[in-house]
Amino acid sequence: IGVFMLETLKGHRADAERKAWDSLARYKFLMAGYWMAKWVGFNQVLKSEGHGDPNPFAPLVRFSRERLGR
């Protein structure tokens, strides 16, 4: 993947994260899940090229698991 494509994917990943948090903050849970999944997909491609980031939604997942007693 070229530099332009990497930067484009990073931009899409950043947009997906922003939209996920915005959707969650407005009680748009289905849309939040959609954008979270998009973030994960972009990150998987970037990760395969050595440019992956830690999942910004991991604390939310941990909180959810704690609430369920897991």
Structural overview:
By secondary structure, the chain is mostly helical. It has 3 helices and no strands. It has helices at 3-25, 29-48, 58-68. The longest helix has 23 residues, at 3-25. The termini are far apart.
- As a percent range, the share of helical residues equals over 70%
Could you give the order of the helices and strands? Answer: HHH
Mean pLDDT rating: 97
The number of helical elements comes to 3
* First-last Cα distance: 40 Å
In terms of topology, how is this protein built?
Elements: H1 3-25, H2 29-48, H3 58-68
Short structural summary:
This protein is mainly alpha-helical.
Task: List the defining traits of the structure above.
70 residues, mainly alpha, 77% helix, flat
